[in-house]
Every structure is written in C-alpha cells, then in structure tokens.
Automatic annotation (TrEMBL):
<dbReference type="InterPro" id="IPR029058">
    <property type="entry name" value="AB_hydrolase_fold"/>
</dbReference>
<keyword id="KW-0378">Hydrolase</keyword>
<dbReference type="Pfam" id="PF00561">
    <property type="entry name" value="Abhydrolase_1"/>
</dbReference>
<dbReference type="InterPro" id="IPR050228">
    <property type="entry name" value="Carboxylesterase_BioH"/>
</dbReference>
<protein>
    <submittedName>
        <fullName>Tropinesterase</fullName>
        <ecNumber>3.1.1.10</ecNumber>
    </submittedName>
</protein>
<dbReference type="GO" id="GO:0050357">
    <property type="term" value="F:tropinesterase activity"/>
</dbReference>
<dbReference type="InterPro" id="IPR000073">
    <property type="entry name" value="AB_hydrolase_1"/>
</dbReference>
Amino acid sequence: MLSAVVTPEGDRIRWVELAGQGPARVYLHGLGATSPAYFAAVAAHPLLAGRRSLLVDMLGHGHSDRPEAFTYTLEAHADAVARALSEAGVEGAELIGHSMGGAVAIVLAARHPRLMSRLVLVDANLDPVPAVPRAPGSSGIASYTEEEFLAGGWSEVRDRVGAHWWSTMRLAGRTALHRSAVHLAAGTTPTMRELLLDLKLPRTFLYPQADGSLPGAEALEAAGVAVVAVPDCGHNIMLDNPEAFVRATAAALAPATP
C-alpha cells in the first residue's frame, strides 16, 4: 500500500500498485467503492498485466483518509488525485474510471492534461441527475440533506443498496459519501459530457449492452469518442463480465496503428 499527502492538512490518498513497464495505468472506482476490490482481478489479467498499475482510492473512500473539511466536489477529487499521481511520478497515464471515477477522470483530464494520455470510461456519469428520494445511487443519497444523512439516512441507504455494494460503501466516510453523491448528481459546469467532447486525447466509453442505445452516442462518436457496448453485464462491468471488460479495455488501450 502506497500513499501521498494531498491536502494542506496532511490527508492521504492510498493506492495498491502493481509493478510493470511503460506508461502507468490508473484505475478509479465509483461512488462508495474501492479500486482494489473492483479492479484487482482485471488489472492482473494477461491482456492488461505487465504495465505499472495504480489502483487508487479517492479521498473519503476505501483505504484513503476521510477528511471532514474536504468538499468532495468532482473538481476537488480530481485535484487530489492529480497531487497523488504527481507524487507517484506519473505522467501520461492511461486512466480507467468507473461511474463516479469516470466523471472524476474527465475533470482530471481537463484540469491536468499532462497526467493523462488515454481515457477509458466505464459507464461513467456524464450529466447531472435530479435528487430522487429512495432512488439507487447518487440521486438517492443526494436527496438527503447532510444532516439527515448523518443522523440516520445512511442506514436507509444501507438497506436499499444491498450487501454487495454496502461491503465497500461501509468503508467510506459518511460525510464523504454524502458530499460526493451530492456533487456527482449536480455535475460540473461545463458538464462532464461537454468536457469529454472537448478533450483531445483518445477516449473510449464502455456501457452495458442491456441498457440499449447510449444517450448522445452520435455526438460522442462525432467528437472521436469510441462508444462500446459490453454484453452480459450491468453497471459494474468489470465485475459482471470481466473477460468482456478486459477485451474491450485492452482494445481501447492498444497502440494506434499507422
């Protein structure tokens, strides 16, 4: 387990690092998740192994610190990850971001372009979503005020999300979880989708084939984003169908042919 100080107060981001050669690969988890649990198996797959790989836990999540004073906006998450990557000597990384991690990755690429060379988004959040009581995911968590969530709303979320998601969500700081969800639901200005359209590096968006056509796919493809439907999976593509995830990700990260 490695770490870097990323706030003036001394809070640390931590990551599991797999040794390898060439430009680093960085894996970022989603809301209430942790990168080692979600990405270790696929990062070690023969099609992706052999590259230096950092499985990063964002502030408030997994093994990283849970500062109460941190804002947990997407921009703050991105800047904190950027400080960790700079401390680790990472530049020109290939970044794979799932869900909220994909949204953070887009902001990271826009704010710190030297740190990234390729971007693979795994069913990432691209647009703001309204807060909806009792809904799954960020919109349901964002429907509580912070005071309501800390006073007991978190236990209602626990009962709704089920044992699998709660197994990693319970590791997140409750303040961190709520603020991250609120800011993820609110999105950025410009939106994550608009930022993604303007990025110049190679970009791929993976999504579950069962969801049907991806909204806005034509505009994404027109801007050079490869949109790839992955079969036999839900939102957690790398866990639901790891072989298909690995194949799609390896293809997205393959060197460009002349």
